[in-house]
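Q: What structure does this chain adopt?
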Amino acid sequence: MARQASLFAIGKGRSAGDTDGGPELPAGVDEGRMMQALASMAREMEHLDNADPRQAAHLMRCLFNCAGRQTARDGRCVDRAVRPLVRAPRPPCYTHAQSSNPQIVAQQDMATQKTYLVISALGEDHPGIVNLLSKAILEQGCNIEDSRMTVLGGEFAVMLLIEGKWNTLAKIENAIPELQRQLNMTIISKRTGERATGRNLLPYAVDVVSMDHPGIVNNLAGFFADRAINIEDMATSTYAAAHTGTPMFAVHITVGIPSDMHIAGLREEFMDYCDGLNLDAVLEPLKG
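A:
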């Protein structure tokens, strides 16, 4: 059987644009049409859902059509090849045989699992920071799922949880150096996944007010850490008391209390602890 060069093969030492020397494309193949079709397919593959067989069938047909040298027999062969893909159910509908295959199950989980990127940025406060950050995220087809932003002294601090496909998140990661230059900020990023929800936790809010003095946050954090209670959110502020101008400190904390913990006993312990430190405190279920 005679050997034939692949339609996509490039001779050694030749670039894709070379036309002189070496084997030419087979007769009937429109090279310009081929390159346009491949460029179009490359754009489509950026948004390809790997879990959807119908999208794979569409790309196979595009590849066949761009060759420009089809025969009736060639068309029948392609139809037979893509027919199982076209008839396949769309995800997440899977057969029992597929669901019992650990490798397929793992691939299905990866296809449906959300992908996240956490971005932390810090820099001198000035107008337009949030606008530029959110615009860069939107242009890559990603979504801000959660955020924290505040001014600390003369610095603006922001933390963003961004949700998107792995390849669109990669584009944001690649854009970070330019964003740092434009915003004059220090930006770091880290990939993450969905939060594990294995433990049954009850959300409670803690509000504490006191005359400002060192050690308040450390004392509160120590109380909850000693009881294996996780602090999930914290915001603090200082202000001057009305009339007297006394420096005051306020802290709002969200904690996750294990459901098997005796809440009434915990509340009594906490109130006694705060009384000993001259802290006015409240511990109650988180509303909303």
